[in-house]
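Why do we care about 3D structure at all? Because function follows from shape, and shape follows, mostly, from sequence. That is the central idea of this module. The next example makes it concrete: a single protein chain, its amino acid sequence, and then its structure expressed as tokens.
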Amino acid sequence: MSSSETPPSLYAKREPVFPRRVKGKFRTLKWYIMAFTLGVYYMFPWLRWDRGPELPDQAVLVDLANRRFFFFMIEIWPHEFYFVAGLLIMAGLGLFLFTSAMGRVWCGYACPQTVWTDLFILTERWIEGDRNARVRLWKAKWDLKKWRLRITKWVIWAFIGLATGGAWVFYFTDAPTLFVDLFTLNAHPVAYITMAILTLTTVLFGGFAREQVCIYMCPWPRIQAAMTDEDTITVAYREWRGEPRGKHRKGAPQTEELGDCIDCMACVNVCPVGIDIRDGQQMECITCALCIDACDDVMERIGKPRGLVDYLALTDAPAEIDGIEPKPVWKHILRPRTLLYSFLWALVGVGLTVALFMRSEIEMNVAAVRNPTFVTLSDGSVRNIYDVRLLNKNGEERTYEMSLASDADLVISLEGLEDTKVVIPADTAYLQRVYITAPAGSAAAQEDRTDVRLWVEDLSSTMRAYKDNVFNGKVP
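And the structure:
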């Protein structure tokens, strides 16, 4: 190539994908999952859960102002973030498990990108028509009809995106109150900004980008190869049965024996990512199984057995070609890799459950004030100062009594209180300064360190908790 010649462009303009409507058991399953997941997302902020008069009654609430997370009867505090970390670990292990067993089944059925893209495509099909009509509209010039259909579609998409962003912000504050504040323009600017960003990204990803998010933005297609093997059940084309493909014309002489595939392109036309499953396993495939529904419908109409495109493992191919019954599905699923993922997933789940139900209703932390290490009072007694943080996890006000356990002659007192009882409001962390004093001339006043144990008791439930610490005296 001479220096004056322009190098060829490596950029390929995106060809839009217009999936055709299809009916079948997998498409029906996807409708059910979409309805369930969207229903959970949109409705959860409106569910109520009675926690008492002093606590929020929203069933699912991320209370950032008070640094708490409520999920029905469960309440998670900041120092209990390990529960959230455990749930994320379980989600990751679950993704590994499902991928190793059935490929990108999460991507095809329950991924938010898939669910919202299905919803946007449903809206587009309702307004513009099925695949052929949408292709014609895409190629048509911009006239009044095209503008009317596109603007109608975009407006509905915007409302879907707005509902998505609105539902998200409802998880972070009382939903009914925020709903009124949004319409009366009394909500915090952060709420409006968050809704605007989520509305824009939902419409962009679900309405316009669609399969490009799955192919180019999502890292999972690149990772999934490490999770799958020849026993993974995924959507595949039975090439040994379908090839050579060709049109089956009645009464026309056949120059060669054709396979079951009539090259109708039904599997390609219904694919939401625009691939041809007959080309083999591909990174772009999200295992949604719509091509199975489309191919089964064609096979029934031409009188051929279903399953030309189906869920199967690579190890099934040699057996089916030789006419041998392939391994049952459970043998593909229950293999060392999936059993290991299942064991780890269950182990983390059991650990979180045990930790959740074994956690104490009283949280206590003791920090000694070391500047100064001790104070000598006018009567010669020695005093140490401690900051005790108490957490009342109950939905009602509780009275706690503090006491001291030690072999030495020590006296406990609470700053600002006449006795050793402290009242803590419901669901509140409370900081109390505590004094421990050794009388003049006592062993504890003269020794360098004396072991002490601070006790706190809930007078309503008699539940107790303690923390060990040390008392510092004067070195003689």
